[in-house]
């Protein structure tokens, strides 16, 4: 009897890659697609996706909601709800290419929206919190509708398939971004479905992840106390919500957030000679113990104006960083970096828990 | 024999390598895994970046890489030699039980994890630069040397070296006062004898990479070994 994916356990893999121009120079999606090719065997065709930053300059003031719908009825139904919360300035089908390697696609739309002023005033919420709650509401309460991208001037593109095919499917050569992240999926304990492909996004935060979180349920229980809902049947989703909570709600810096999710061992903290650093690390571990992420991970967090790469503190997954001129490259394998830039320099493997933060110059994005 | 492997998958690449009886140079390599896996003879030179598990189960062949190598180089290798003119990724020499790995630059995490030895099979890994955390994790045999000759500001080894080590030897060059070892190992200054015993391996390393052995030897060395034949005697039950 043939078991379908999700009924059988498949051992782990996954590939991630990213590129960013510190000068804010735009790149089409072709290079990042190329980078996934040598890492083909890290994925198994059950998920691929990309996040691109700076792709909607003409709609930069509006939240770009990328959505999957099971059918026309769920789209119509969802649009009705959207109109109650948002002003929709543009709605369209996300252009795709029919290719044999990508099948069973849902209905894929994007909406550029602005929260209704009156609603914001009534609810006394800031814009971002309002959008977050709306996304959670749609994803939990509206069957057959799923928001998979909700940031400004950015978007994710994901599907069931190999990443290099997903890139062709979404015509990524037609988008220009100052930063790209990519993911090839090899689902471990959970089904491969369109919503379960990476990146996982909330507002402009996106996560691509290679690994398997053993603390998932502890993290999920904690983060769900703050209104986040884990609906996507996979561990990576919780990382996105944790980062949103730490960065947007708790207003931690990127370095601090990294020290929460990949906190050093107590023995490592005890051996620190810098007293203020030691106290800070102690404080973060004490205040956010439930947000420590254990188990293997290498992630790239994308956000407006930058990227952060991070490994779990034991470094149970590989990650390599390289540079060339204004660009910084991050990938699971050096080969992927060489596909994007054969002459990449300063190739390094960051240590476990050592965040690599790259930002675009102010005003260049 | 020289051939370009650009765009070839790992199966086709290895079939091609096997089809020649002569020494081979591969160019345009970019991420193909399992290159030269299990091979017995031949000298294989690689230009580019070989993929993971380079020389896995290697059984006598020599692999020379002009560039960096990725993860799990020499996984479970039995015999032969792997020379990396660059740095190496994580888990180099994973469970290797024979042969040699020489690395000019740095090694990632878990270099020499679960290396082992049996009778005359004593694997050797020499890291010219620095090593990441968990060096020699669960090491059961063989020799790992770290020379620390790269210019990064990192320490010669990262955190938690020798965790679970119960056999073999790790030799570190230079001052290691700042390194914390677990209780199950003992670190001692190398004696004249220890250093003399390293000379043949170091001589070969220097010939391969063109460095000066006098400069290397002229330093303090520390030898780390498990501190008893059965360091986990009391861990679960008395045995």
TrEMBL record, chain A:
GO molecular-function term, one example from the UniProt record: transferase activity
Domain Glutamine amidotransferase type-2: start-end pairs: 14-361
Active site as annotated: 14 (for gatase activity)
SUPFAM superfamilies per the UniProt record, alphabetical: N-terminal nucleophile aminohydrolases (Ntn hydrolases) (SSF56235)
TM segment ranges: 287-310
Key words, A-Z: Glutamine amidotransferase, Membrane, Transferase, Transmembrane, Transmembrane helix
InterPro entries reported in the protein's UniProt record: GATase_2_dom (IPR017932), Glu_synth_lsu_1 (IPR012375), Ntn_hydrolases_N (IPR029055)
Gene3D superfamilies: Glutamine Phosphoribosylpyrophosphate, subunit 1, domain 1 (3.60.20.10)
Origin superkingdom: Bacteria
Protein name, as recorded: Glutamine amidotransferase type-2 domain-containing protein
TrEMBL record, chain B:
Domain Glutamate synthase alpha subunit C-terminal per the UniProt entry, residue ranges: 22-191
InterPro entries given in the database record: Glu_synth_asu_C (IPR002489), Glu_synth_asu_C_sf (IPR036485), Glu_synth_lsu_3 (IPR012061)
Annotated source species: Massiliimalia timonensis
One Pfam family matching this protein: GXGXG
Stored SUPFAM superfamilies: Alpha subunit of glutamate synthase, C-terminal domain
GO molecular function: oxidoreductase activity
Protein known as: Glutamate synthase
């Amino acid at each position: 009897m043939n078991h379908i994916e999700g009924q059988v356990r498949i051992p782990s893999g996954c590939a991630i890659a990213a590129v960013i121009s510190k000068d804010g120079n735009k790149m089409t999606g072709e290079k990042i697609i190329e980078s996934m090719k040598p890492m083909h065997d890290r994925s198994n065709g059950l998920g691929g996706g990309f996040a691109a930053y700076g792709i909607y300059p003409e709609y930069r003031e509006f939240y770009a909601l990328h959505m999957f719908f099971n059918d026309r009825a769920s789209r119509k139904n969802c649009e009705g709800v959207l109109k109650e919360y948002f002003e929709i300035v543009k709605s369209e089908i996300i252009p795709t290419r029919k290719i044999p390697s990508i099948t069973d696609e849902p209905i894929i739309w994007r909406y550029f929206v602005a929260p209704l002023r009156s609603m914001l005033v009534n609810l006394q919420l800031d814009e971002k919190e309002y959008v977050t709650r709306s996304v959670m509401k749609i994803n939990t309460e509206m069957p057959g509708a799923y928001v998979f991208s909700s940031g400004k001037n950015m978007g994710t593109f994901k599907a069931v398939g190999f990443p290099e095919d997903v890139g062709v499917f979404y015509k990524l050569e037609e988008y220009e971004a100052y930063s790209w992240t990519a993911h090839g999926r090899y689902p471990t304990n959970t089904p491969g479905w369109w919503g379960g492909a990476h990146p996982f996004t909330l507002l402009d935060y996106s996560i691509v992840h290679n690994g398997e979180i053993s603390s998932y349920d502890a993290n999920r229980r904690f983060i769900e106390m703050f209104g986040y809902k884990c609906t996507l049947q996979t561990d990576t989703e919780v990382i996105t919500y944790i980062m949103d909570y730490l960065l947007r709600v708790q207003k931690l810096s990127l370095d601090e957030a990294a020290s929460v999710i990949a906190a050093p061992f107590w023995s490592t903290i005890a051996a620190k000679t810098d007293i203020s650093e030691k106290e800070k690390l102690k404080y973060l571990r004490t205040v956010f113990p439930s947000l420590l992420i254990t188990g293997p991970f290498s992630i790239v967090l994308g956000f407006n104006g930058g990227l952060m790469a991070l490994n779990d503190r034991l470094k149970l997954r590989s990650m390599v960083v390289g540079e060339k001129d204004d660009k910084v490259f991050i990938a699971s394998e050096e080969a992927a970096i060489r596909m994007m830039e054969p002459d990449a320099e300063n190739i390094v493997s960051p240590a476990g828990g050592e965040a690599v933060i790259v930002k675009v110059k102010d005003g260049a994005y | 024999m020289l051939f370009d492997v650009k765009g070839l998958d790992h199966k086709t690449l290895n079939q091609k390598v096997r089809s020649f009886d002569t020494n081979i140079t591969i160019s345009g390599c970019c991420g193909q895994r399992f290159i030269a896996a299990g091979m017995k003879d031949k000298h294989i030179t690689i230009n580019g970046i070989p993929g993971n598990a380079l020389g896995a189960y290697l059984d006598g062949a020599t692999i020379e890489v002009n560039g960096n190598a990725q993860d799990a180089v020499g996984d479970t290798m039995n015999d032969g030699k792997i020379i990396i003119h660059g740095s190496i990724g994580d888990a180099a020499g994973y469970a290797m039980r024979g042969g040699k790995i020489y690395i000019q630059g740095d090694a990632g995490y878990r270099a020499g994890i679960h290396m082992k030895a049996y009778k005359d099979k004593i694997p050797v890994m020499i890291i010219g630069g620095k090593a990441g955390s968990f060096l020699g994790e669960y090491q059961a045999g063989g020799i790992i040397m770290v020379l620390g000759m790269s210019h990064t500001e990192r320490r010669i080894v990262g955190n938690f070296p020798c965790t679970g080590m119960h056999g073999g030897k790790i030799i570190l060059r230079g001052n290691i006062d700042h390194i914390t070892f677990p209780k199950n190992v003992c670190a001692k200054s190398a004696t004249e004898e220890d250093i003399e015993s390293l000379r043949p391996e170091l001589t070969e390393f220097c010939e391969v990479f063109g460095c000066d052995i006098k400069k290397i030897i002229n330093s303090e060395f520390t030898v780390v070994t498990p501190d008893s034949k059965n360091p986990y005697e009391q861990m679960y039950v008395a045995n």
